Amino acid sequence: MANQAKHHRTVTGLVLGALMMFGFGFALVPLYDVFCEITGLNGKVDLVQAEPSTFIDHSRQVKLQMVAVNNETMPWRFRPVSSMVELAPGEMHQTAYLARNLTEGFMIAQAVPSVSPSEAAPYLEKINCFCFERQPLKGQEEKEMPLVVSISPELPEHIHTITLSYTLFDITPEQKAELAGQGRSSL
Amino acid sequence: MNTSVAVSHHHGPASGISRWLFTTNHKDIGTLYLWFSFLMFLTGGCMALLIRAELFQPGLQLIQPDFFNQMTTMHGLIMVFGAVMPAFVGLANWMIPLMVGAPDMALPRMNNWSFWILPFAFAMMISTLFMDGGAPNFGWTFYAPLSTTYAPPSVTFFIFAVHMMGISSIMGAINIIATILNLRAPGMTMMKLPLFVWTWLITAFLLIAVMPVLAGVVTMMLMDIHFGTSFFDAAGGGDPVLFQHVFWFFGHPEVYIMILPAFGIVSEIIPTFARKKLFGYASMVYATASIAVLSFVVWAHHMFTVGLPLAGELFFMFATMLIAVPTGVKVFNWVATMFRGSMTFETPMLFALAFVVLFTIGGFSGLMLAIAPVDFQYHDTYFVVAHFHYVLVPGAVFAIMAGAYYWLPKWCGNYYNETMGKVHFWCNFIGVNITFFPMHFIGLAGMPRRIPDYALQFADFNAIATVGAFIFGFSQLIFLYNVISCIRNSKPASDRVWEGSHGLEWTVASPAPYHSFSEPPQVK
Amino acid sequence: MIKTILGFPALLLFATASQAAWEVNLPRGVTEVSREIYDLHMTIFWICVAIGVVVFGVMLWSVIYHRKSRGAKAHNFHENVLVEIAWTVVPFIILIAMAVPATATLIKMYDNTEAELDIQITGYQWKWRYQYLGEEIDFFSSLSTPRDQINNAAVKGEHYLLEVDNPLVIPAGKKVRFLLTANDVIHSWWVPDLAVKKDAIPGFINEAWTIVNEPGVYRGQCAELCGKDHGFMPIVVEVKAQADFDAWLAEVKQADQDKAAEAQKSWTLAELMETGEEVYNKACLACHQANGEGIPGVFPGLKNSPIALGDPGPHIDVVLNGKQGTAMQAFRDQLTAVELAAVITYERNAWGNKVGDLVTPAQIAELKE
Amino acid sequence: MKAPKENRESPGLWSMLLSVLAAFFGVQTQRNYQRDFASGRFWPYAVLGIVMALSFVGLVYLLVALVLAQ
Fold this sequence. Notes:
The complex is a heterotetramer.
Chain A: H1 2-39, E1 62-70, E2 76-80, E3 84-87, E4 92-101, E5 107-116, E6 124-129, E7 135-137, E8 142-151, E9 161-170, H2 173-182
Parallel strand pairs in A: 1-9
Antiparallel strand pairs in A: 1-3, 2-4, 4-8, 5-7, 5-9, 6-8
Chain B: H1 17-21, H2 26-54, H3 65-100, H4 108-127, H5 155-182, H6 195-226, H7 240-257, H8 260-274, H9 281-294, H10 310-338, H11 347-370, H12 372-378, H13 382-412, H14 418-445, H15 459-474, H16 476-488
Chain C: H1 2-17, H2 32-65, H3 81-109, E1 117-124, E2 127-132, E3 137-141, H4 147-150, E4 168-171, E5 175-182, E6 187-191, E7 196-200, E8 206-211, E9 216-222, E10 235-240, H5 242-264, H6 269-288, H7 306-309, H8 312-321, H9 337-349, H10 361-368
Parallel strand pairs in C: 1-5, 4-10
Antiparallel strand pairs in C: 1-2, 2-3, 5-8, 6-7, 6-9, 9-10
Helix pairs in contact in C: 1-2, 2-3, 6-9, 9-10
C-alpha cells in the first residue's frame, strides 16, 4: 500500500544519510590535517621539504629553542647539539641532534616534530630534517642527525621565541607487530 | 509487564517467552526497552555506589585504583548508552504511535531487532569486567592513547559493543522518523504534533547524523590497535587531539540527544497539571530545531585546555555562549505555562517541576563552563562532574521517571500509589541534591575528576556526597515496588487518567489495547 | 514544597560566604591571571544567581498562588511574542557583556612575550619530570606520601597526596614559561593557585606561562585521566625570591657533582645493600612486592629469577632500559648511578638470591653517562 | 495524508529565511508556524537551516578575527 512506498523512500534516504555521516567521520581525518596546516593547530609541522627563502630580515632576532623528548618506548640518548640559537627570520641554520642506541639490539626510530607556540608552526621551514625518514641504529651505535631550518620572514611580530621539539618513537617493525597483536597493557 | 489486554478481534499477543522474543508490537517493544533501561540504571547505579563508597573517606579502603577506573568508565557507558537512551527510545516506542494516531511503528520487525541487539551488546560490555587485564579503564570518553596503545585487551570487546549500540540507535531513529513522517492520522498535520513527538523527531535526525561518527571513531581505534594504522598514534603521523575532535563532534550532539526528549516529556506534563496550553508552542518547536543544528558547531568547548590556538578558543567560546540562549529560554516557556494556571501536584508534576529547577542549575553551571579562561580552572574537576550530573540526573532521569508515572496508568490500566510516588520523589530530590551539590564546592576547591583518593581538604563534602548517593540509590527500589504493584493490582484508571490530559493517547482505553488505531482516528 | 524551594537559594548564598575548612570556592590564586579568572568566575556566578532568583521566584509564586486547591482558574493565554523576545534579548545582552572581559583575559593568557626561564615539563605514567632549559638540571618529581598513609595503616599527613620528593622551584616575580609534553599518555599539568592548566600530549609540545610575585609553596595535581595512579602524581611548585632561587640552582648543581663524584668512590657490598633496599622500597616495591615475588601472571618475581641470578649484563639492561611491551619502565633517567647500582646489587643478593657479586656505581655511571 | 491546503504556493524565500532566523533566536509566532508548515515541503527549511548555521560559523569567525586584529 502507499505507506510501504513512502517508508521505502524515507528509509533509503536515512540509511544513505547514516552511511554518509560514517564516511564524514573518516573524512574528518584529512580535514583535520588541512586545518592543522593552515592554523598550525597543535604545532603540527608539515613533514615536507621547504626550499630555502632568499630574503633575510635582519631587523629582529628570534630565539629558536631546540628540545628533545624520548617517548616511553625509546631507551636512546637523544639530545640537540645546541639547545638555543638567535636567528634572523629568513636565515638558514645548520645544526644537528645526537642519538645513541643504548640497548644491545638493532632499533629503528621515527622523530616527530612539534612547535610551540602553535601559531608559529606554519612559519618554521625545515630544509633538511632527520624527521623526514626513519633512523635505524645498531646496538650501542651513535650518530649525528643533521637538521637545517629557517624561520620565514612573515613570522608575526609578537612572536619572539619558538620552541622546536622532537619526540623520538620506536618503530622497530617486529615490535610494532607484536605490540599491535596483544594490545599492550600497563597495570 | 504482562499488560492485561482487552480482547482484540484478530490475534492478541502470543503467550510466554515467545511473545517477548518475536514481538513486533510497539507497546511490547516499548516495555522491553523500559525494563532493560531500568535494569541498566540499577547496574550503573551499583557501580556509582561503589565509586562513592570508595570516595567516602580519604585513603584506599575498598577497591584498587585500576578497578576504580574501570568502575567510572563502565558507570558512564552503562548510564549513557544503557539507561538514558534506551529509556527515551522505550517511551518513544510506546507513545509516538499513540500520539500521532498510527497503528504501530513504520518498520515493526526492524523495531524488534533494534531492541534485541542491546542486551547482547551490554552483556558483552559487562563481561569485559571478568576478562584478564580488566574492563576498559580509560573513562567513558575513551581518549587515545590511553584507550588505544595503553588499553587492556578487553578494549576490542568494548569497541564491538559500541558498534552494536550505535546500530541499534540508528535503526531506532530511522523507525521513529518513518513513523512520524508517514503514519500520521489524517488531520494530525505537522502543525498539531505534540511536543514530545517534535523533540523525538529532531533527536532522531541528530542520532542518524552522529552515531555513525561514533562508529567511525571506534573503528579508527580498532584499526590503530589491531591493524597497525596510526590515526591517533603520534609515532606514525597521527594525533591524539584528532581523537578528541572527532569524539566531541559526536559528543556534543549526543548530550542534546539525551536532553531533547526530556524537554518533550516535560512540555507534555506541565500543561496537563497546570491545566493550561503550553506557552509559545511554535517557539519551542523552532528553538529545538535550531539547538539541534547549532549543536554541531560548539564541540571544542570540551577541549579548552588541550592547546587550541587562540582563534579556536575564542570561536568556540562565542559559539557556545550564543547557543546557550535558545536552550535557556525554553525554561521561561515552562514557567510561563505554569503562570496563572490551575495546578495540582501529582508525582509526574513534582518530577517535572524538579526537572525545571535543577536542570536550570545544571544549565547555569554549563554557562559558567562556557567562559574559556575560567574553564581553565573548572576543566576536568568535580565542578564539571556536578554540571553534567545536574543536567543528566535531575534532567534526563527525572524526566524519564516523570514520563513513566504520567503514562503508567495508560500502559497498565491502573493508578500507581500516589503517596508512594511522592515518597519516591522526595527521596530522589533530597538524594540528588545532597549527592551532587557538594560536588560544585570540591570541584571549585581543586579536586580533579576520576581520582580514587583525594587530599584532606575535600574530605567533608565527599562524605556528604556519598551519603546522598546511597539515599538516591536505594530510593529507586520504592519506584520498582510502586511500578510492580501498579501492574498487579491497584485502582483501575479511567481512559483520560488525568483531569487535564490532552492528546490522542488519552482517547484510547486504559490499558491501551494491544492493537490501537487499527483504523486511523479522525483528528479535528 | 515551599520550604525546599525557599531553602535552596539561601543554601546557594551561604555556600559562597563561608570560607571555613569546608573549601567551597576557587582559590583567588597568587598571579594576576588567577585573580582575573576568579573575578570572572564570581561575576558569571552572581549573574546566574540573579537570573535564578528571578526565574525560580516567579515559578515559586506561581506554584503557591496558582493552585487548583486555592481555586485558581486556568487563564487561556499561550502566546505572547513580545514577552518571549524580551526574555531572549535580555540573556543575549548579559552574555555579550560577559564575553568582553572574558576575551581580554583569554588573550592575556595566550601572550607569548619573552620569558626569563623556560622549563620543559614531561608527564610520565604517574610522575612529572622537570628539565630547566639552558641549565643542566633535570629531575623527577613523584609522590612522597608513604604507602602506609594511603592504605590507612598510618595517620595521614597535612599535605596528604599533595607532597612530592623534588618540588619544581621557580623564581618569584619572573615570567616562567612551561613547555609541556608527555612520555606515554595524555596528562594535564594543573596548579590551581597559579591558574595554569595545560594538557601534556605525547608527540606534541604545549606552552603555558606564569609570573608569581609572592614566594610560597603551591600544590596541584594531574587533571587528565592517565591510568592507574592518575590520582597519585601531584605537582608542588616552590616559588623563591631571586636570591634564594640562585642559591638553590647552585646547590642543585653542586649536589649533581657530588653524586657524580660519589659514583667514582668505591662501595662495599653492605653499603650498597643498605641503599639498595631503600631505593627498592621507593621505586620497585609497588610491582615486585616486598618479598621480591611480584604478582604471578602480572609482575614477574625477582626472587631466584634467572636474570637476577645470571650474569649482571642483562640485569643492568632491564633496569636501565626497561622492557618493551610490558609495564617495566626504563629507570635510567629516574635514578642516580649510585641508586641504580645499589638496587641491582640488592636484587641480586636479597631474598635468598645469594649471588655475592656487586655492581659498582662507576660501572653504571659509564653506561648512563 | 497531506493537509488539504497542500497546493497553496509555499511562502517566499525571504519569509522562510526569517523563520529560520527566528528559530535560531528561539522565538516564533503561531501564525508564522502555521504558514511555514502549510507548504508541506520540508527540505527548503533544512537546507536554509544548514546554510544559516554555516553563515553563523562564518559570522562568529569574523568576530574572532576582528577581536584578534586589535
